[in-house]
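Why do we bother with holo predictions? Because pocket geometry can differ from the apo form. Keep that in mind while you read this record for HDD.
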Amino acid sequence: MHIDEKSKDAQLAKDRSEPTGNFLTTDQGIRVEHTDDSLKVGARGPTLLEDFHFREKMTRFDHERIPERVVHARGSAAHGYFQPYESQAKYTRAKFLQDPKKKTPVFVRFSTVAGSRGSADTVRDVRGFAVKFYTEEGNFDLVGNNIPVFFIQDGIKFPDVVHAAKPEPHHEMPQAATAHDSFWDFVSLVPETLHMIMWTMSDRAIPRSYRMMQGFGVHTFRLVDDKNVARFVKFHWKPLLGTHSLVWDEAQKLAGKDPDFHRRDLFEAIEQGDFPEYELGFQIVEEADAQKLGVDLLDATKIIPEEVAPVIPVGKLTLDRNPTNFFAETEQVAFCVANIVPGIDFTDDPLMQARLFSYLDTQLTRLGGPNFAEIPINRPLAPVHNHQQDGFSRHTSNVGRANYFPNSLGGGCPFLASQQQGGFVHTPEQVSGQKLRARPESFKDHYSQAALFFRSLSAPEQEHLIDACRFELGKVETRAIQERVLEHFAKIDALLVSAVAEGLGLPAPKATPVTPKGPPASKALSMEAMKLMTPPSIKTRKVAALVADGVDADELMAVRKELEAQGAQLKVIAKRLGTVKASNGKDVAVDKSAMTTTSVEYDAVFIPGGAASVATLKKDGESRHFVQEAYLHCKTVGASKDADDVLKACEITPTAPGVVSGSIAGNGAALATAFAQAIAKHRHWDRKDHDRVPA
Ligand code: HDD
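The structure, written out:
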């Protein structure tokens, strides 16, 4: 069967409804003549029950909502395709991984976990990274997160951890936040959460963009080749734009100023042709080597450090199309860990095993019955034939009378497929043991990898993590919970426990940190270390230029030219929309009025010269706040030599790290180049006065 990157779109197109050039009709196809007044006896009279158009319109409206996802309710999605770099036949017989020319259509949904559907995008949380591959052998769903480990080891604790994290049941607060007693109570009593806690308190939990975060399959899966040889695998997604985060003060402000920040960023980037790209990678472990790793591969609270098993690049995911309709696609898409194709298999990870049950089960309620695989976004491209039937909202009309297997009345059809014909064969595995509820000894170390993570971070990243713990635990009202968490932190790291204890005004328990097994630090855990390993880029970054009448348009253009040449965008911001009059008499178009935008929506700020413009900006409180806020969030600030007065008014020294002033770099092209280089560093943590950041 031929599938290419356009196949899913062609299938979806059959269900699209195009209003252009068509009459308004009822659901029964009756053309509507009037839709602004209900049918009444006289213009001021009672409404008639026979008004079928009113009744249908109102009934349909009343039933528009479906239950939101019990977790990951808030999300955004995009279409795209996956293409392997080369055949992966040596690891797997999965057909979508055999041919470097083959492009498999995908649908990817990113999400937060704890918040409800209308919550803000930039809250501190794990991000979901769920990929549906529409392969010729059926759908493969890789339902991952942007963090490679999980809070718990056994899925039976999932309702507990989610209840603890969600708003508390008596008053339903707080929304989309773990900074409350019940969550930390759970953490303090369940130390297997601690490794994941290190990740969620780190900058990873406040990504700059869905386009700039990693994804992980989390569990150990199996890849199976055509000789039925199985190997363990961990799936990784690495964003080609690098992994970047916000700062906490910025994330909190964005939650109010643009709660759709990540959704908008993804949507706009795709509309502009800046297609997000991620590299799929495999960490492979031969079954015979599993015992030598020092961690149990079935324990989802552990990683395999990349120093121990490198990530092998496998192929690229490109997101190149926004959904046509949010509800039809993003809301109704149903991912399921159990959706795998021949060549991929499960393991006995007890978290994964629970997930194999939960997804289909939750979707029965959320999508109103068992036929949700027929919803266009969920429908496989591979043909579906079986004896499943009936139930709410059945679309398929099965032909014939033989709705059972085996049958002779239907000629034995649909028939079974051997492995050679693409039939799914579970990897044979010897299993025996006592029936019991227990955790293996090999799951019992909860501190080593928490310590490995903390110690692998750069000093600024550690500082952010400590601040996050101070914030979250600072909101906890029960002292005993804070104290219990500190007891755990004492087993992770001396700096961590002392700094957090100090912030909470509690005595630090004596530090007894564990020694991480395996490498003492792992580079791939630190975003700062990873940044040094990837080529610097400002692609798709957004830069604000603050201007007023009298601006030097040539300087503005020189910077715009350089930024755009490197794939970034410059937005001109002034007091009012319309245009400002440049010093050369020309009009400069304004993209945003200062009232409708804010520094937290940009990656850097530029102040061009022009005496009158500079004089206005340095006196204007809103403009000064814009520059200062960007500076305090450690973003690059660029200023023409003639705009040093604005820096001065903002108490910024032109020699501070990440400040690019024309008085030092020289104006024009030199300034533009230096400015772009500084933006490529993302943030300048070495600013000594950054402790002025509010919150
Ligand atoms: Fe889950 C949704 C990822 C553990 C039960 N999960 C959901 C989504 C993602 C993840 C990305 C949203 C999919 C979408 O966009 O529609 N979940 C994970 C990861 C986990 C994990 C990476 C740990 C490795 N989840 C987990 C456990 C259970 C669930 C242990 C239950 C035993 N997850 C669900 C669910 C959801 C879900 C209740 C809610 C909505 C849905 O499935 O369709 O079944």
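Residues 69-72, 75, 109, 111, 128, 130, 143-145, 150, 155, 158, 218-219, 300, 333-335, 351, 354-355, 358-359, 362-363 surround HDD (CB under 6 Å).
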